[in-house]
Design goal:
- The complex is a heterodimer.
- By secondary structure, chain A is of the alpha/beta class.
- Chain A folds into 2 domains: about 10-30 and about 305-410, Aspartate Aminotransferase, domain 1 (Alpha-Beta Complex); about 45-300, Aspartate Aminotransferase, domain 2 (3-Layer(aba) Sandwich).
- Chain A has helices spanning about 10-15, 45-55, 65-85, 100-110, 115, 135-145, 160-165, 190-200, 220, 245-250, 285-305, 305-325, 350-360, 375-380, 395-410, and strands at about 25, 30, 30-35, 95-100, 120-125, 145-150, 170-180, 205, 225-230, 240-245, 265, 270-275, 330, 340-345, 365, 365-370, 385-390.
- In chain A, strands 4-10-9-8-7-5-6 form a 7-stranded mixed beta sheet, with helices on both faces.
- A 4-stranded mixed beta sheet of chain B has the order 3-2-1-4, with helices on one face.
- Classes of the chains: A alpha/beta, B alpha+beta.
- Chains A and B meet through helix 13 of A and helix 1 of B.
């Protein structure tokens, strides 16, 4: 028998003390923040790191020889190394700082796609995708005369992997799929799907926006070619994200944006580009945000991603059981492997009314189509309410969600 | 000071949501339009029959939140039997009230629709209340579809303004 080592349990009250915003009251009630899939909150060590940078370390990077510029440069590059370790990339130069997941996907769609996708070629996406992993590919397909093929799901929200494999043809050029569905929480079998794509010689981009904050991500183990994620969903600042890319692929790509910091030499006759990652980081980057994201992954790593995942899983299990017991509540997304995202609809009550009234109970959830309209169409709903948990949420907050839902149902009689 | 949104979900609005008046279609509409809120996917269809200049019949259908549905239901009750010009005046007053440009007490024709005045405190929900009125205006103007976004955004281009 294999011995499974249990992660050290999370001391959630101690963790919560690190997040000043969690002490707020909303509508006279303690804030119950369950919109973490949209954006997570920032712990004091990350806030402090941003303050320290701004008060003692700021200058432009990769340019001047003076003290501050050297400090800012080394802190920025140190943050890159932290991110490299966080996702277990082979080399730091495979980590490109972007403004977020959307930026990273656009970078690949334009920088890789325009070079390697042509008329009649095919791009494979899934019906679970966030609009940010659909629209950049549609723009590319339209420009190049390529076609989008879509992997379907079953009613539980799991990808149909047989259908996925059947979608491949000799025109398949790239697969772009989410690691974790933002609307349903399904964790997709990325490693197996990557292995299949590679057996056909097709590279895979993974949208990791909803996975990086909740799972231990290892890009070498997944063997994916690109992995994009956002800082603000994992306790970091907005305006910063990461695109991981396999070095050989990044080197073969066109730069996406031209400007300073991404060049080797410039003359009016010819410009040569800087090596990766700088080739893709034109202009002055959000230096403070990158350093803040470095502090955020330090924070997450100190808690331990396995402990985070275990705590969130306990919250998901409890919330799922409690909501299943409530009459008039239907949960959407019942995949066997799920992250702590709970989408639901209340019979006869529109999600926007649910959201407004839950806010009156201090409970913050997201309501709407979750930037996943094709998925909503597949599920036959216009919108859902979504509670998404982070490691700083508690079982008592699940109680508050349940009580809030009862209160909404009471208003509607 | 923010209004208590619960006060918005009072009995008259909940009642119109539960039992929407004039819900359905007209057999021979002289004017109709489809209104969409692309941000939330809500859509509403308004059809009416003008007899001379008077709204002789009006109906709506669609899929939307309680605020939108109640607003549509109360709108149909309010404009039925009115002249087109009176209905347009009422639409303008409603939008001005919902967007906080006009206090309910200063709206001469608003009547029972004053129950929606609290919506101006909920910026994310204002469009829900406005959508039916915006769609009514589009029907009068023979615009087949309208939207709460882009050029047609009633927040930027209030309906009824000349």
């Amino acid at each position: 028998m294999t011995r499974i080592s249990r992660p050290a349990a999370l001391d959630v009250e101690r963790v919560r003390a690190d997040f000043p915003i969690l002490g707020l009251t909303v509508a006279g009630k303690p804030l119950v923040y369950l919109d973490n899939a949209a954006s997570s909150q920032m712990p004091q060590p990350v806030i402090d790191r941003l303050v320290r940078y701004r008060t003692t370390q700021h200058a432009n990077i990769h340019r001047a020889v003076h003290h501050l510029s050297e400090t800012a440069t080394s802190e920025y590059e140190a943050a890159r190394k932290k991110l490299q370790r966080f996702i277990n990339a082979r080399e730091a130069r495979e980590v490109i700082f972007t403004s977020g997941t959307t930026d990273g996907i656009n970078l690949v769609a334009q920088g890789w796609g325009r070079r390697f996708v042509g008329a009649g070629d095919e791009i494979v996406l899934t019906v679970l995708e966030h609009h940010s992993n659909i629209v950049p590919w549609q723009m590319l397909a339209e420009e190049r005369g390529a076609t989008i093929r879509v992997v379907p799901i079953d009613d539980a929200g799991e990808l149909l992997t047989d259908a996925y494999e059947a979608l491949f043809s000799d025109r398949t050029r790239i697969v772009a799929l989410g690691h974790v569905s933002n609307a349903l929480g399904s964790i997709n079998p990325v490693r197996r799907m990557v292995a299949f794509a590679h057996s056909r010689g097709v590279p895979v981009l993974v949208d990791g926006a909803q996975a990086a904050p909740h799972l231990a991500v290892d890009v070498q183990e997944l063997d994916c070619d690109f992995y994009a994620f956002s800082g603000h969903k994992m306790c970091g600042p907005t305006g910063i994200g990461v695109l991981y890319g396999r070095a050989a692929l990044l080197e073969a790509m066109q730069p996406f944006k031209g400007g300073g910091d991404m060049i080797h030499t410039v003359t009016f006759e010819k410009t040569t580009y800087a090596p990766i990652p700088h080739k893709f980081e034109a202009g002055t980057p959000p230096i403070a945000a990158a350093i803040g994201l470095g502090a955020a992954v330090d924070y997450l790593s100190a808690l331990g991603m396995p402990a985070i995942a275990a705590h969130e899983h306990a919250l998901l299990r409890d919330a799922t059981e409690r909501l299943q017991e409530l009459p008039g509540v239907r949960i959407l997304g019942t995949a066997r492997d799920k992250a702590a995202v709970l989408s639901f609809v209340l019979e006869g009550i529109h999600p926007h009314d649910v959201g407004t009234l839950l806010n009156e109970e201090g409970v913050a959830v997201r309501t709407g189509h979750h930037c996943a309209q094709p998925l909503m169409n597949r599920l036959g709903v216009a919108a859902t309410s979504r509670a998404s948990f982070a490691f700083y949420n508690t079982l008592a907050e699940v109680d508050a969600l349940v009580a809030g839902i009862r209160a909404v149902q009471k208003v509607f009689g | 000071m923010t209004a208590d949104p619960k006060s918005l979900y009072q009995e008259v609005i909940l009642d119109h949501n539960r039992k929407p008046r004039n819900y359905g279609s007209l057999e021979h509409p002289s004017h109709q339009a489809e209104g969409l809120n692309p941000l939330c996917g809500d859509h509403i269809h308004v059809a009416l029959e003008l007899a001379g200049d008077t709204v002789a019949a009006i109906a709506f259908r669609g899929e939307s939140c309680a605020i939108c549905k109640a607003s549509a239901s109360m709108m149909t009750v309010a404009v039925k039997g009115r002249t087109q010009s009176d209905a347009r005046t009422l639409a303008r007053e409603f939008v001005d009230m919902a967007t906080g440009r006009l206090a309910a007490g200063d709206a001469a024709h608003i009547g029972r629709l004053a129950v929606f005045s609290g919506i101006s405190e909920l910026p994310m929900r204002v469009k829900c209340a406005i959508l039916p009125w915006h769609t009514l205006q589009a029907a009068f103007d023979a615009v087949a579809t309208t939207s709460t976004e882009a050029d047609a955004d009633p927040m930027d281009a209030p309906i009824g303004d000349a």
